[in-house]
Design brief:
Helix content: 55-70%
Order of helices and strands: HHHHHHHHHHHHHHHHHHHHHHHEE
Strand content: under 5%
Shape: globular
Mean pLDDT: 82
Low-confidence stretches: 1-15, 480-513
Oligomer: single chain
Structural class: mainly alpha
Strand order of the largest sheet: 1-2
Number of strands: 2
Number of helices: 23
Amino acid sequence: MTLYPEGPASLTDAYGLRADPTLYNADLAPTTPEQRTWGTYSYIALWFSMSMGVTAYMLASSLIAGGMDCKQALATILLGNLIVLVPMLLNAHAGTKYGIPFPVFVRASFGVRGANIPAMLRALVACGWFGIQTWIGGQAIYAMLNVLWPTSAAMPSVLWICFLGFWLLNMAVVWRGVESVRFLQSFSAPFLLVMSLVLLAFMTHKAGGFGPMLSAPSQFHTHSSFLHFFFLSLTGIVGYWATLSLNIPDFTRYARSQESQIAGQSFGLPVAMVLYSFIGIACTSASTVVFGHAIWNPITLLGLFHQPFVAFLALISILIATLNLNIGANVVSPSNDFSHLAPNLISFRTGGMITGILGLAVMPWKLMASHTDYIQWLVSYSALLGPVAGIMIADYFLVRGTRLDTESLYRREGPYEYSKGFNPRALVALAAGVLTALIGLAVPDLRFLYEYAWFVGFGVAALVYIVLMGTAPRVGGATPLAQRIKVGGLEKVLDPALGNSAGAKARIVAAPE
């Protein structure tokens, strides 16, 4: 027998799972060995496909529009992605070790019912991204109309019609089922990459080569002004992947081994983001040379092309990639989260409709009004997700020593029941992290807390959680160093936190080799 196996074969077969039907279904069950097919290349490909989006381009271009030069922007992009890679890999560990997705993993720290709270925070952020991607798609349609029908540029109402039309298209796909756009996934990212390279070649030619583009000076004249924008941008870059740094177990649960997902992610994330960001940085720098000011939105830039066919083809690629990314990344996850709140009342389809309505409610046209508004959006929601990441990592590595009672994650009245399914210590830590990060919005002298929102929220929430859990080490199975005893040569784990104070029968966690 082995202790805490790397990927249980099947809880039902190997352990005789006693699961609460409200906490268990086929999608939430631990992955089987047959399902663990993702190798290093799979994770490299995953990150390259996710990095090739319009929002990633705009994240990089916003740094140039904010005043950085090319070298400063690339260095900031690289550093930000190396930083966010750390919580990404830490949270990924449980997915690979136990084969569990994010909604199940987070039950260990927040409780079997309390896990809905971080899931809802993640869902609300995804709704915001849905609105942003829909606005980008509407802009692409509007830009295409301007190419084909130039007089439409003088009709602002046409933009809103395009936006609502693209929103309805997304809702129609949700209603029909996400399988209706699966065929787009195989070529949308490569197609967008090709069109991005075409845009880069065009802007390089217009700017007179890479020399003038890359030699454009920084607009910051003092170290203090640069550092202020640098740290704000760094937080925004970390915030860009803050959602995925939480639910990365949804992907790593299919890994063949820890080594394959670590190697694939460590190479794929920073390399893919730097390479694709270079296109956004170079094109925006070239726009400064060609047009006299930085144009951070690629759709606006494409609208200035004097080759209608090339512009039309490029805008079509943006439209396809945006639809594919929006459905895959910003509809499926929140729809499942909303459905999980009340499975008998909210179906996946209804959850998708809720996502679409909330996507309109966030007013994405305001979030994307300028590069500063875009960065502020990234920073703001990082104040919500940073504390969740801090609690998850502190709980799994420092409080539990990477040990989880997998079966109890799927049933009530176990060690993760806490208080009626909620862990009040996690909720206090979450509130402490969020409020500390957001207090900078109300108190000007503490503005730096908001500008470093993800880092501040992460650190405060993790520290408060460790302190609170340390005062009651028997709560929620939270004993980092479980007592090992050998009975008849068989190694077992006896965790007193899984029993009661009177020493009731403790649970034995073991699995066949």
